[in-house]
Amino acid sequence: MKIVVIGSKGFIGSHCVEYFCSIGYEVIGCDVLEVKEPNYYYLGEMDNDISKLFENNVDYCINAAGSANVSYSFQYPEKDFELNVSLVIKLLGAIKKNCPTCKVLNFSSAAVYGNPNSLPINEYAETKPLSPYGYHKLLSEKLFSEYHRFFNLKTCSLRIFSAYGPGLKKQLFWDIYTKNLTNKTINLFGTGKESRDFIYISDLIKAVACVLKNANFKGETINVASGIEIVIGNAANLFLESIDSEKSLLFNGEEKSGDPKNWKADISELKKLGFEPAITLKEGLKEYSKWLKKIA
Question: From 21, 171, 173, 215, which residue has the greatest number of CB atoms within 10 Å?
């Protein structure tokens, strides 16, 4: 089997490469990081013809590219659009032209939901993004559905909730880690009573494998999460325990633009494809902490 991973040097993309190589797939990576290694395509400003990747038969393509930074999307909405929407239509166009039998998987985001009316959130819930990032991810989903409906491409989008694990250098746990190194008190946005649905990276990759094997690829969207709601304050304290920190947390009560209040995913559709989460938040944070100690 041959698989192309767009965004292969990013957090989720790099784990996809590692996993599919480990089970014997021929994996072609693609990203904007200029490195020389086998089976890697550098997508530079002067050479960004992504169609070259699909001139020979490809069984699967995973789109793990784009920006995943809500704050960045407020500062640079045009660039966020380019990374999360324009790249998607180039990718779909290249596959339509060169390899129309390829199954194409898109990493979207739970950010498309915004603040849901009720929990847990299923795939039919109203989409009300709170940021340009969320809107752009929703547009990427619509493009994937469009290219299935009108051009019969085999497409599917995954709405990723709060993924974490080795390799992640942003978001809540990374923020706490970096502040713990230099500050006496760790200041965070919000009240601490907000909630998220965290999924450890190995569970996420297992979900990807289940989707590639068993999903219909008819333009559908599927939630990827643990299905467990965790209060931010509890998650933050659990992480401090995992890094052996006795510092105190201070939530400033300020809302951060684009951040939702409460999330819990309905993962019934994902479970139908054979997925069951295996890693608890406590276990996952221990593994993440081990990685943080290695890079310190």
Answer: 173
